[in-house]
Amino acid sequence: MKHKVIAGVVALLIGGLTAQTFAAEGGGKPEDAIKYRQAVFTAVRWHFGPLAAMAKGTMPYNKEEAIRHADLLAALAKMPEEGFGPGTDKGDTKAKAEIWQNQEKFKNGMMQMEKETAKLAEVARSGDLNALKAQVGVTGKNCSSCHDDFKTKQK
Ligand code: HEC
Fold first, then answer.
1. Positive or negative, the Cα torsion across 19, 25, 27, 33?
2. Which atom of ligand 1 is nearest to the CA of 77?
3. Which of 77, 108, 129, 151 gets the most CB atoms within 10 Å of its CB?
């Protein structure tokens, strides 16, 4: 009897884990995936903003803060892609249909964001403000070039 209860609990736990894995792979509800990627991009802007401000000189340069923001940004850059699964082209979103018509180019843009933000984290660690400015510029161009191609201005 006791064993059956334990087996039941174990089965439930495994079932729960499987469901979670599916959601993580894009099997969740499309509206949840859209909210997820928008939330990630909101966090991306939150951490990129101070780096851009330090680069422009509108915020005092602080090496430790630059490293912290750049590390979090590099981690976030790995996150949005899985929110663009099938069925997420419609709804409360600014994503253009071109994303699903030109997946290779879109994925390239995502890869570029991972690469450039990883480099930004390295550069932040060097403490070289001029190098940071240059890499903030490269990263910002990556944001706007993908937005130009794949994000509408209005909802
Ligand atoms: C490879 C493409 C791509 C790259 C690179 C990219 N974005 Fe985006 N971004 C998008 C798309 C597509 C959306 C629209 C998502 C939606 O509405 O479902 C978006 C939405 C946003 C939003 C709006 C989120 C909201 O509230 O709905 C912000 C802010 C944002 N991006 C900031 C950035 C910043 C900052 C960078 C660079 C560090 C960046 N993005 C890089 C494609 C990209």
1. positive
2. 38
3. 77
